[in-house]
Amino acid sequence: MTDVKRYPNFIDGQWTAEGVEHWLDVVNPATEEVIGAVARSDAAIVDHAVKAARKAFPAWRDLGAHRRADILRKAGERVSANRQSIGEAMTKEQGKPLNEALGEVDKLAKTFAYYAEEAVRVLGYTAPNEEPGHLSLVEKEPMGVAAAITPWNYPVELIGWKLGAGLAAGCTMVVKPSEWTPLSAIGVIKCLEEAGLPAGVVNLVNGDGPTTGQALVSHPDIDKIAFTGSLRVGEEIFRTMGGIKSVSLELGGNCPLLVAPSADLAAAVKGAVRRSFRNMGQVCIAINRIYVHRPLYETFVGEMIAAAGKLVIADGLATPTADLGPMTNAAGLAKVREHVADALAKGARLGCGGKRPGDKPVGHFYEPTVLADCTQDMLVMNSETFGPVVGISAYDTLDEAIALANDSQYGLAAYAYTRDAGEMFDLAKKLSFGSVAINNVDAGIINAPYGGRRKSGTGFEHGREGMEGYLQFKHVRIRHRA
Q: Does 2 score more than 80 pLDDT?
């Protein structure tokens, strides 16, 4: 298509296509139509962006926390003012219904506002000395230039976690959004530009992982890498980053839900449906596997099937209030089909779904799928499906359920429903995950740390801890008296 709009990079305060030789199509997953194209930035373009960030770093670091906070606050206001256009761009390229996309934009605005407040709370301390006449100051300083590589499932919220924390800390940044969802990220950068962000403080380079991402993480002048994505790519970053750098990685999960004997079954079903299928299951903290106390099992399965069958699937622009849109890309859809086929071949019972909706001949659509009688050897129970599929299994004792939940290479989030106070505290203590949500399915809030264990990654986002990941300590020891 010769009339497709091409979107440039943003480097050193300028929107530019200089040096771009190849372009990547952006596709609407509901219609499979090309809606734009972005640069596939090569190593030379990445180098230009990193140099711009390095040049801008001293002035941004020394600008002062209160002025950095003012810019972040204004950026949040600009995001709110551009809510509709950013949300529509997200729905077109990612697939989630418009109402859900608008909610994500609202969260981005709140993230910038939150880190505007945290920017002025970078506090050090004094440490006692054994020798008289000496004083030790422990200070925190920004690391320098940070690379932020963001995913396609939450293309503006997750860019905000990195930009908000990094800019509040005083770092300058080079951002590479997913090649699947670059248009909403461009909208975010425009908001920062409108807020008066100095040239070079944030730079946007579009492209794919093998070309642009690898050039960015391996660049010798990058001090910090913040990445959200797959385990495979996270491991590749460690192999290719080319030196000692600070790294924070959020690499997904295979998150369990435990339904205890005393659980409010209606609440558990409602929570399970929401967290299993929201955003077509394309959520790092989606519920992938559910363990239900055996006496409750068949009732729970039946109610899950009934609730999943009521979800409305549609093009998110045509039906803004739909529950689900399409999956974002064909590769994700193929993985879903593989996991469902694997479970059925190993004896799972198909409760509902397992196919494309009959009224959706075009687009990456898939019905919400409930698989019952699952076992730990099934992919849906031991790998991250990242799609609208959930496996369910029965258990006899809560200790058995906890052991099954912890039996995973991932450790991002876990969920449980119980009305027994003792069980609540047992579950909170014994579930080995970075976040545990009990009687709710919202495992993350912006003012508390969010991160995983085991192969779910390293480091934290959200909260003060998210900003601390962009800071480094300095010990200053002063002899002030002989």
A: no
